[in-house]
Amino acid sequence: MRNYITSVTVLCLAAGAAHAGALDRTGQSVNVLFEDGRYVEFSLGFLSPDITGESIAPQGGTLGPVFPIGGRSGDIGESNFNFGAAYKADINDRWSYALIFDQPFKAEVNYPSGTGYFAQDSRAEFNSYAITTLLQYNMANGFSVYGGPRFQRTDATAAIAFVGDYEVEADNDWGVGYVFGAAYERPEIALRVSLTYSSEIAHENDVSEVFGNPFLAGLSGDSTAEFETPQSINLEAQTGIAPNTLLFGSVRWVDWSDFDLSPDQYVGVTGQPLLSYIDDITTYTVGLGYRVNETWSFAGSVSYEENTENLFTNLGPADGQTSIGLAAIYTRDKMTVTTGVRYAWIGDTTTAVQGAPAAEFNDNSAVAFGIQVGYNF
Q1: How far apart are CA 131 and CA 179, in angstroms?
Q2: In terms of DSSP bridges, do strands 166-186 and 201-211 run parallel, antiparallel, or are they unpaired?
Q3: pLDDT tens digit string along 141-193?
Q4: CATH number at residue 71
Q5: What does pLDDT average to over the chain?
Q6: Can you tell me the distance from the alpha carbon of 69 to that of 60, in angstroms, rounded to the nearest whole number?
Q7: Burial class (CB in 10 A: 0-12, 13-18, 19+), 355
Q8: Which end of the chain is more exposed for a tag (fewer CB within 10 A), N or C?
Q9: Cβ distance 136 to 98 under 8 Å?
Q10: Which domain holds residue 319?
Q11: Euclidean distance between CA atoms 364 and 106, whole angstroms
Q12: Measured at the alpha carbon of residue 186, what is the angle toward residues 181 and 187, in degrees to the nearest 5?
């Protein structure tokens, strides 16, 4: 029964900045801690977004051509993979530990060339890789507490053609944060409730900025970009509601309003961050799981994020989402294989240039596939 919560993780493997939770990709779950005995898992997710926009105001004219209203962006979503792995073991009856590798925050946007859209030939990519080490103390009354450090690496690149042929590269940087939480379990009714806090992680990436336009070339140079990946809180729960039937759900809050990636020269020219968000984001998920027999189980879930109706940068045109997911869980001896698919309707979004509405991204979607293989030994 515990594997139904695992299925939700698989369904979310490819959820990213293209359609959900800003740069959020994995949800930073710690559910591996609740597996029995020694356990190892590997997961792979694939995201295929379909995102197009249309300009609603003329752009350019100062350092280049004028792009009129009505220009279509073409599909800017980039299909990509996401990998994860985890290991959990018991030290004794009271103490357990886990090691988790994931790519918690990630984004890829690519505006195709030749469209006549003001952002054509522009692209951006943000990557992160995290290693989380957790120690858990299990009490006799069903409660447990856990925590540990998280080590995270980030890097980013971007090219913004309509801003003086601007290019920026942020080198790798490692930062350290922490995780702590508590849980309550009653295995006889498949009940588990966990609350997990993940801290912000500060980064100082060495940045190289280059303007290809000769009028701005003198502004090119090196600097340091200081930013924080956001703090978050995960509330996750599951309980049996009938024989072989499980109800599960989660609420994830992420402090995206404090995220601000602002290279010095880009801000000096445009007056706005390269990538930032106005509001925090809360994701709600609810689902049902059913065990058919000892071999096969199935689960379905629905997730929702509110549409804020704020203005977004052109490197992150996604405001809220609604998604549905299905998972099949195959269990044989000590091995569990979970496969999942998730379809998301991306919220309508308005992007801005220098604080003024520039384009609308409506009726967009994304599909994600995931597979996770776990083994108890």
Answers
A1: 11
A2: antiparallel
A3: 999 999 999 999 999 999 998 888 999 999 999 999 999 999 999 988 889 99
A4: 2.40.160.60
A5: 89
A6: 11
A7: exposed
A8: C
A9: yes
A10: 3-376
A11: 19
A12: 110
Both structure tokens of 235: 């509330």
Output the DSSP codes for 252-315: EEE-GGG-EE--HHHHHHHSS-SEE-SS-EEEEEEEEEEE-SSSEEEEEEEEEE-----EE-TT
**Of 273, 236, 278, 271, nearest to 255 (Cα)?**
278
Residue 32: its H or E element: none
**Residue 78 confidence class, pLDDT cut points 50, 70, 90:** confident
Cα end-to-end span (Å), the chain: 18
CA 353, CA 299: separation in Å to the nearest integer? 42
Amino acid at 9: T
The pTM score is 0.93
Pairwise CA distance, residues 311 & 150, whole Å: 32
Q: Give, in order, the Cα–Cα distances in Å from 193 to each of 22, 66, 184, 185.
A: 26, 56, 5, 7
Q: Which amino acid is at 82?
A: N
Element (H, E) at 10: helix 3-11
**Looking at the 3D structure of the chain, how many domains does it have?**
1
Q: Which residues pair with 222 in a beta bridge?
A: 208
pLDDT digits (tens, 9 = 90+) for 21-51: 678 888 898 999 999 899 999 988 888 889 9
Per-residue pLDDT at 179: 98
